[in-house]
Amino acid sequence: MALLNIGGNNDDAFYRYKMPKMITKIEGRGNGIKTNVVNMVDIAKALARPASYTTKYFGCELGAQSKFDEKTGISLVNGAHDTAKLSGLLENFIKKFVKCHGCGNPETEIIITKTQMLTLKCAACGFLSDVDMRDKLTTFILKNPPEQKKGSKDKKAMRRAERERLKEGEAADEEQKKVKKDVKKKGSAPSKDLASKVVSTKKKTSVSDEDRSSPAGSQGDENETADDDDDVQWQTDTSAAAALQRIQEQLSAVTAEMVMLSTNEEKPKKAEIATKGSENGTAFSNPHEKLVMEIKGNLKKGSTASQLQSFLESLSGTPQEVMSALFEALFEGIEKGFAKEVAKKKNFLAAATQDEGSRMFLLRAIETFFVKSSREAVKEVALVLKALYDADMLEEEFIVQWYKEGLCGGNKNSPIWKNIKPFIEWLQSAESESEE
What we know:
Radius of gyration: 44 Å
Strand order of the largest sheet: 3-4-6-5
CATH topology of the largest domain: Serine Threonine Protein Phosphatase 5, Tetratricopeptide repeat
CATH architecture of the largest domain: Alpha Horseshoe
Order of helices and strands: EEEEHHEEHEEEHHHHHHHHHHHHHHHHH
CATH class of the largest domain: Mainly Alpha
Number of strands: 9
Number of helices: 20
């Protein structure tokens, strides 16, 4: 759809206010001939004005009847009129009822004042433009006012809420001032009361400690300690023994035991995990099982391929051990449809095989995994290699080298190499054809 600049600024190709080019169609014959503005709804949306306004303006300027159907969106003007003529009238409509008289931008809104006057409020510069009330379209706009935007009502509600908050804040400030004045009037009486309470509590604690150490305390000693309170600096013993003693004194026997358990030194976490695993019968018999469980735990958290790569680098173990554990963690327990699962999870394998050396580790991990797998899974070894080969994760040189090493190892009768043999022959034949 061709677009035009709103307001006749056709020289500027980067002008952001645009509207579709007008499309007209002449319908009927004789006295019933009419001009249909096909895309009047789209033009009105670009101008942020109702389509009935533009249609009525054409009728007023041409002295013909005009009608806009709200349901169907059809805009009709009686008579046969050229597209150029209607486009010129549309430019006049934009100058009078759309463009701001201050900045010239079409970001305006029609506002009807209390005195039944029309003004254009610009959202760009805030300028209020007066509309010529002598135009015939103004009476139609007053009878059919534009719909107010929902944002204006929301703004009014926000302003009311802000006023209420300000009033509540002022009331709270006044209350705080009254409280401060009352405290100043009372003077230092509250502070003296607090000081007396603190001194009395200190006396009680000191007396209780003396009673435990020497139950036969005399009244004369109490009077002496009371007289010397001003020169004493009170301190609390923060040692573990003193804390336990205070706990035992203040709490019952049962609660004291619970708190004492929490004060003991914690055992190392690794030792706890090992003991719990041995008690439950889930202790790792070898490092391989431990690596598999760690990788499974990371995958359950929903880690991405890049996150998995950094996690694998942090594991303790050789690259071959980590790769074997990764392959087993991804595909353990799968028998049918093994190749499809490899195609789904190839992103994780790709993250672990960024360099060429890791690709050989992947092939050896496949070998160790399929040695333990069932016959149904072993039948899909060639399909797995084909999927990884198509994904550019394994190259022909590595696959052939790995295959030859497996045959030289004395496992020629292994079902793995028997199932891989057709794939190797296909690779070699494809290479010979490409060379020819």
